[in-house]
Design a protein that fits this description.
This protein is mostly helical and about 80 residues long. It contains 1 helix and no strands.
């Protein structure tokens, strides 16, 4: 048996609103956690990218210096 009085209807509506608010709060919390994880991953990727770039720059400079020394050695002969 379901009651159709105004006070029961208002109570049911209030409970539904509270339930909806709880779901929104939970989803908001999950979204914030995902955002934090993405920021961490982004920072890690950025650091890794910078390290690789620095290594490649060092290697390129070494190869350029080696090439220049070889060219100078050949031209001195």
């Amino acid at each position: 048996m379901v009651c159709h009085c105004l006070s029961c209807h208002q109570a049911n509506s209030a409970f539904a609103a509270i339930d909806e608010k709880a779901r929104v709060v939970e989803l908001n919390s999950k979204l914030h956690e995902l955002c934090r994880e993405l920021r961490k991953e982004n920072a890690l990727l950025l650091d890794t990218s910078k390290a690789i770039s620095a290594q490649e720059l060092t290697q390129r400079k070494s190869l350029t210096d080696n090439f220049q020394e070889t060219v100078e050695g050949i031209t001195r002969r």
